[in-house]
Design brief:
Structural class: alpha/beta
CATH topology: TIM Barrel
CATH architecture: Alpha-Beta Barrel
Number of domains: 1
Distance between the termini: 14 Å
Largest sheet: 8 strands, parallel, barrel
Bound molecules: 2-phosphoglycolic acid
Strand order of the largest sheet: 1-2-3-4-5-6-7-8
Number of strands: 8
């Protein structure tokens, strides 16, 4: 499986001008880089999906940051899985901690979105991870277990190669704090074990397990390379193509 480097641009790049500048910098910085061992996925806000796809062509993949679980109908303000797919996306981030925190998304709802994504052929990047309080209460492993099991409930094993799981400790997102490599490795081993229990080893091994939360060119060694992750989910640093591609290059070369 190719390693994945995913950029979550969140609610940034406020104007078409900023967006065009981003494309320009990204093209300039990626021109001389060898990135054949990884797949890069950029996840811009919904309104830019088509522009990103037109610019990206075949050189990189595009993903949405969220979507609704229903396919069509009277759901004012929501975006359908089919719309995301038809905008040219291959991926969709689901259950990001900011969605859980500000929009009160629960595992059950995320599970419906996972099923809907698979139905239209989108690859869900499912975010799991503990909060600061859960960490202090030593509930990390239980939280991860519940999230993985509940978010993947009812998914068929034939779909496993489309599933991506991002371990993102909530306390590490947007903070510049990162867990030690050993803790990340422990989370990865646990996630793989849960997947083996649910889907059997051959299917479980097709799932890419990423790390996310304050990944940058200085932390990437500790949070991705050392624990042997299948890639990274990058927030802030994805807004600066120079920094993002430095991370991508390190993941490409390990
Ligand atoms: P960060 O965000 O890299 O800015 O910590 C990661 C994320 O939210 O996916």
């Amino acid at each position: 499986m190719k390693r994945l480097v995913v950029g979550n641009l969140k609610m940034n790049l406020l104007s078409p001008l900023e967006r065009e500048k981003y494309f320009e910098f990204f093209d300039k910085e990626s021109a001389n880089k060898e990135l054949d061992n990884i797949e890069i996925v950029l996840c811009p806000p919904f309104v830019y999906l088509e522009a990103f796809k037109n610019w990206a062509g075949k050189k990189l993949a595009v993903g949405a940051q969220n979507m609704f679980a229903e396919m069509k109908g009277s759901y004012t303000g929501e975006i359908s899985p089919a719309m995301v797919k038809n905008a040219g996306c291959d991926y969709v981030i689901l259950g990001h901690s900011e969605r859980r925190r500000y929009f009160l998304e629960k595992n059950e709802e995320i599970n419906l979105k996972v099923m809907a994504a698979l139905k239209v052929g989108l690859k869900p990047i499912i975010c799991v991870g503990e909060s600061q309080t859960e960490k202090e209460n030593q509930a990390t492993l239980q939280v991860i277990t519940d999230q993985v099991k509940e978010c993947l409930f009812g998914v068929s094993r034939t779909k496993m190669e489309k599933i991506v799981i991002a371990y993102e400790p909530i306390w590490a997102v947007g903070t510049d704090e990162v867990p030690p490599a050993n803790d990340i490795m422990e989370a990865k081993v646990l996630i793989r074990k849960i997947l083996v229990g649910m889907f059997g080893r051959p299917s479980a091994e097709k799932v890419a397990i990423l790390y996310g939360g304050s990944v940058n060119a200085r932390t990437v060694e500790q949070v991705c390379v050392e624990p042997g992750m299948d890639g990274a989910l990058v927030g802030r640093e994805s807004l600066t193509p120079y920094e993002f591609l430095k991370i991508a290059e390190i993941i490409n070369n390990y």
